[in-house]
Amino acid sequence: MYKGIGASAGIGIGKIVVIKEQELNYSKTTITDKEAEKKRLADAIDVFIEKTTALAESMKITAGEAESEILQGHIMMIQDPAIKEQIETKIDEESINAESAVEEACDFFAMIFSMAEDELTQQRASDLGDIKTRLIKILLGVEEVDIGAVPAETILVAEDLTPSMTASFVPENIEGVLTEIGGKTSHSAIICRSMEIPAVLSIPDITKIVKDGDVVVLDGTTGEMYLNPEEDVLAEFKAKRDAYLEAKAALAKFVGKPSQTADGHVVELVANIGGPDEAPGVLERDGEGVGLFRSEFLFMESDSIPSEESQFEAYKSVAETLEGKPVIIRTLDIGGDKALPYLGLPTEENPFLGFRAVRFCLKRQDDIYKPQLRALLRASAYGKVRIMVPLVTCVDELRAVKAIIEELKAELDAEGIAYDKNIEVGVMMETAAASLIADILAKEADFFSIGTNDLTGYTMAADRGNPDVAYLYSAYNPAVLRSIRNIIAAANKEGIMAGMCGEAASDPLMIPLLLAFGLNEFSVSATAILQARKTMSLWTMDECKALADEVMQLTTEAEVKALLEERARS
Known about the structure:
The protein is an alpha/beta fold and 570 residues long.
């Protein structure tokens, strides 16, 4: 048995196909015609952009809008002036061929990204590796590996599964994925989960251990993998697969049912999305609205600040698609791990504690924030749009945003443009500061939505991408649980909605606790809606409160997790 990281749930049984990158044979050479070499580079970049755009469109269909944004990000990276100019400078000043210039420049920036403390920034090093390889292939005239041609019942094995590889997936032919590197937040994990393909990542030397045609069984939850298993192991995994598929099929009975506990306590169960194209999937998965629309994706897929009109059309599209169901749209959350060259963000030693989200937007009102807020107000005439402000740490920030909104309402009134005059403005509660002043914020906000990913990181002062402190990054930690309970209690006291759009909202171990605390709205990935609804149905509110009373007496994360696992219901 081999062990890796279970990154995408499900049981995979099939035959191995090892994906090996072709050797790129070239050497560092001196060139004399620098302009011709830069023309070769420019032509290759044009081809790269054309091919990547096509791959992104394909991925929208197979994996979804958010996943296609990964490839859109590759286009932005190769167009980044810093990277592009570094390649051209090497050709100009060192008189080297384009292939070598691309390799050296991409390796340099990849090294910088890999030294970052957070995992999301480190992932950019992998992105640059993918970009480098594909661009050099174009320069050499080498064709990409066609993963779309693999036969049915394939288990794909690769050193890493790059976004460009997964864009050509035929999901029904792939029973599972095994890689040598990658974790739960890597692009390969995100894409496999969106396609519902079981995956086990970070199995050392897996490409050398297996060969084409080997039979493999894998568990994408536990991270276990068996190579050429005995008949009894194979039979055990077939039974596991049948049980997993039966449980998945059984969720269909929750379609159209209310999201409620066994004794009839009703909550709102909505979805997180990254772009307008994901909105229909919310309805297809029986979501009751959108609890988080990440508006930064509109900025990340553009090479300049999106206009008010283009944003309006995107927000309007989601509002109309949801047909009157609530749509919470988060204002631009940029900075930290999400930097865009055209925004001119400063380089910071600690960007997660720096100039980002609402802090940045309030400094860039005229060219960024006001056009976005106007677009949101205009879109509110077409559905139940709510505005959410990220990274709030003091009441002054919320008041400043609300003052801008009132100013813009007066403008729209003067222009005769319709909008929801009672549009709600809420706070994304994701900092320790916001938790500590939740009682103050609850008097001024129309709703709360807890972002547990950042709330956990900021509360525990721990970066989930740093393996030395990752043990601290857990929503089961008593400090985080007390913070969540405090936020919800403050919202309940003031009679405003208490929602959650972080990963904890879909965690079956956390759901009974969140119900007991008084959470009104659960915002999860669209694929997790029915499972969350089922979990809710297994508990009465008295049982939830009794469990919460026990949990809140415990003193360590390990004790909390152990008790929740012991009482888990499926």
